[in-house]
Amino acid sequence: MIKAGDSSVRVSNQKFPVLLATVVDTAGLVRLPMLLSIAGCAVTLIASRGLAITRSRFLRQRIVDCQAVAEVVERLRRQIDTEEYAAVIIGDEIVLHELAKCSDQAWARRCLPVKPACLAVILSKHEFTHAARLRGVPTPKEHICADIESAVAAAHTLNFPLVLKQPSGFSGQGVRQVGDETHLRSVWLELGGGPLAIQEFLTGRVGSTEILFQHGRPLAWTCNYMVRAWPTDFTASCIRQWADLPFIEPWLEEIGQLTGFTGFAGIDWIHDPTSGSFHVIEFNPRPTPGLYLGVEVRVDFARAFVGALAGRTTVTRPQRASRPLAVMFPQAVFWGVDHQDFRTILQALQDVPVRDPWLALALLRRILTHYLPPSLRRKH
Description:
Strand 9 and strand 10 form a beta hairpin. This protein folds into three domains: 7-117, 3-Layer(aba) Sandwich (Rossmann fold); 141-200, 2-Layer Sandwich (Dna Ligase, domain 1); 205-355, ATP-grasp fold, B domain (D-amino Acid Aminotransferase, Chain A, domain 1). 33% of the residues lie in helices and 24% in strands. The chain has 14 helices and 14 strands. The strands form three sheets. The protein has a six-stranded antiparallel β-sheet. It has a four-stranded parallel β-sheet with strand order 3-2-1-4. It has a four-stranded antiparallel β-sheet with strand order 5-8-6-7, with helices on one face. By secondary structure, the chain is α+β, with helices and mostly antiparallel strands.
């Protein structure tokens, strides 16, 4: 939610008050307080205790004693009822799903990034690809199957290998590749049964577009190919290559009109540079990990966001990158350790958020505790 041009919701130091809510320790959020604060926002965080983002020195206010997602949403309601905010950012799908349960209430509608009628499209991967396909957006062939026998029948029309996908989830959760019927039956049980989408497996380069929408209008975006991902091939990239894809803009506009989305989002796709084929595979209704890297292609997402708050809606398109690859901290450190690639580790350490030292230390601690034996990890 963005209140464009509403100067009445500024604090005394002329910063726009922004409310951010999350229960997940994701790389997509941890740098957002720093980016927004530098650009002209005063960020209040509502979160579960113990998240790395709570250590950011760029937070104006921390409400970080919540135990569960329902409590985060209740604190969100109380903040909305007692204070005015220029924008509300829902940081993860878990909070967004919980908030959607309250969409019949006025306070919740003020927080949602879309109108209640569009919630199903952004919350369900199945609904999104179906609706996007109807608008002419290229998406993979797929069947929504309620039981395993219909999935097996669909698989033989699409041909293996295939992708099985739950209707919701993030960071690769609920997505599996299957190679044959036996594997399909096994993964079907692993994912808990239908309804699941069974989708053709496309060849090409997996990539993503990070984007800022306002009422469905794309205001700023970047495009990148995934070079490495961690911890699985279906999660977000930890090493990425900038992509110059000007042809994507009409599809971004179609998706914006379809969802009416306002705020930061991510769109995943597969592009085959040889054949030119392009397919949208997923919509992520939350801030995604590489927003802070946009300046490398002359896209300052935070300034575009503040510009929208001030009533300016200039469109910012990506330019040529100053370097071909972005090696991201802390994600690429995990990949480098797992693959014993010390060069990648050193490159990732150059991406440490030194302007936010307590956050940087919290992220380093995450790396260290991840590799502790489980018996010791529980104590840290």
